Amino acid sequence: QETRVAIELFFATIHELYTLSSAWSLRLTLLAAAKTYLLRPGNPNLESIRLLLQATLIDANISDPALASHIRKLRENALPTEEERAMWPSEQMAEEEKESLRLRARRLLVERGMPDALRGVMGAAASAECLGRVFDCLQDGRVARGLVFAVVLQGVRAVAQ
After folding, report:
1. pLDDT per residue as tens digits for the range 27-68
2. Confidence class of residue 94 from pLDDT cuts 50, 70 and 90?
3. Burial of 6 from C-beta contacts in 10 A (0-12 / 13-18 / 19+)
């Protein structure tokens, strides 16, 4: 059951990402077919997917030290103390350097942010367009903070249940 929910969430995320692209409508059928294939009754691949998710995501990130590390890093970056902020580099970047880093980060996300298999099915142009839009939205500090706090909230909900 949990594997089915994870697959549904995965496909829902992909669906929402590609709705940001103007060229994705023809590939919706392929996405729906892949989801139907994976979730068909009696699919022996579901157990393999469950084991893969268990080993790579859940076991690696649910131990007490791993959770503590994730929470600590998230807190340090989202809500740094004065001591942590003092350890940050004090030099201010020039606007040109900031823009150069932003463009480089955007290019890296667009080029490497989507698995090749998914990029091949959904199309390179649509993948680049949707990831570029996500990156551009996250440049607004309010959106980025909202995303971080939404992820934290979902993590707390998952741990508390």
Report:
1. 777 777 778 877 888 878 878 878 887 888 778 888 889 888
2. confident
3. middle
Residue-wise burial string across 57-70, b where 16 or more C-beta atoms lie within 10 A, e elsewhere: eeeeeeeeeeeeee
**Burial of 2: CB neighbours in 10 Å, binned 0-12, 13-18, 19+:** exposed
Coil, helix or strand for 31? helix
Helix (H, G, I), strand (E, B) or coil at 79: coil
Cα(133)–Cα(123) distance, rounded to whole angstroms? 16
Q: In this structure, are residues 15 and 31 in contact, taking their beta carbons and an 8 Å threshold?
A: yes
What's the CA angle centered on 136, arms 130 and 141, to 5 degrees?
135
Q: How many Å apart are CA 24 and CA 116, to the nearest integer?
A: 16
How far out from the chain centre does Cα 154 lie?
14
Report the share of the chain in percent with pLDDT over 70: 94
Q: 24 falls in which pLDDT band (50, 70, 90)?
A: low
Calpha distance 82→143 (Å, rounded): 24
